[in-house]
């Protein structure tokens, strides 16, 4: 079991995260500037801090929506993707930007893109804060990416391990002895 009482080692510090979020917001604002309102779909719970920072830095009209999915039954063991909370509004004809915390196997993002594309939006793009460098997620549909990281369990800036460490201002590494 991980020792959740000791602070996780810093992988990406707060200043680097904030600078990268600023870059992503500028890039997204530039690319959507003539598209009207975009619908930001935050994936709960992990993306809530990233979405809060990113959305406040955009300079284009935007709406915030949330979905909840789970791909892990508990801890860090991979399972099936389950839709736990759907959007409350239709997205037909809208420009949708999915905001996700981390791409691990990539199955959550693939599931979500397919699900939303079937609802006839004007477009569906994706923005992920981090992607783990794994061969099986190389084809994950990521349009905007904050950081590439090694295949380690990370916490902080919205990411958790069994609900611990979500509110750390940095992204840290948790050594999980399995
Ligand atoms: P995927 O479907 O395997 O890509 O897993 C995606 C989801 O698993 C993410 O949205 C996270 O909620 C969770 N996850 C995967 N890796 C980590 C990690 O290192 N720390 C915290 N959560 C993770
Ligand atoms: Mg997530």
Description:
With 178 residues, the chain is an alpha/beta fold. The chain has a domain at 14-29 and 37-70 and 81-150: Rossmann fold. It contains three helices and nine strands. The strands form two sheets. The chain has a six-stranded mixed β-sheet with strand order 4-3-2-5-6-7, with helices on both faces. Helix 1 (14-31) crosses helix 2. The model has no long low-confidence stretch (mean pLDDT 92). Bound molecules: inosinic acid and magnesium ion (MG). Residues 46, 71-72, 78, 100-108, 153-155, 159-160 line the site of inosinic acid (IMP).
Order of helices and strands: EHEHEEEHEEEE
Distance between the termini: 7 Å
The helicity comes to: 10-25%
Number of helices: 3
- Structural category is alpha/beta
Bound molecules: inosinic acid, magnesium ion
CATH-derived topology of the domain at 14-29 and 37-70 and 81-150: Rossmann fold
Low-confidence stretches: none
Strand content: 25-35%
Largest sheet: 6 strands, mixed
Number of strands: 9
What's the alpha carbon Rg, rounded to whole Å?
16 Å
* Cα shape: globular
What is the mean pLDDT?
92
CATH structural class of the domain at 14-29 and 37-70 and 81-150: Alpha Beta
Query: Which CATH-level-2 architecture of the domain at 14-29 and 37-70 and 81-150?
Result: 3-Layer(aba) Sandwich
- What is the topology, as strand order, of the major beta sheet? 4-3-2-5-6-7
Describe the structure concisely for a colleague:
22% of the residues lie in helices and 34% in strands. Helix 1 (14-31) packs across helix 2 (48-57). It has helices spanning 14-31, 48-57, 107-117, and strands at residues 9-12, 38-44, 62-72, 78-85, 95-103, 123-132, 144-149, 154-155, 171-173.
């Amino acid at each position: 079991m991980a020792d959740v009482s000791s602070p996780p080692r810093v992988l990406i510090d707060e200043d680097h995260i904030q600078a990268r979020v600023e870059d992503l917001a500028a890039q997204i604002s530039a690319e959507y500037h003539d598209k009207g309102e975009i619908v930001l779909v935050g994936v709960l719970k992990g993306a809530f801090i990233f979405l809060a920072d990113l959305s406040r830095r955009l300079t284009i009209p935007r709406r915030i929506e949330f979905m909840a999915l789970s791909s892990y039954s508990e801890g860090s063991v991979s399972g099936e993707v389950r839709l736990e909370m759907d959007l409350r509004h239709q997205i037909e004809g809208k420009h949708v930007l999915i905001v996700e915390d981390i791409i691990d196997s990539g199955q959550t993002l693939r599931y979500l893109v397919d699900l939303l594309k079937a609802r006839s939006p004007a477009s569906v793009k994706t923005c992920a804060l981090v992607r783990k460098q794994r061969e099986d997620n190389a084809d994950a549909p990521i349009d905007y990416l904050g950081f590439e990281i090694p295949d380690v369990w990370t916490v902080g800036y919205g990411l958790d391990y069994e609900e611990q460490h979500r509110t750390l201002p940095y992204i840290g590494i948790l050594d999980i002895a399995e």
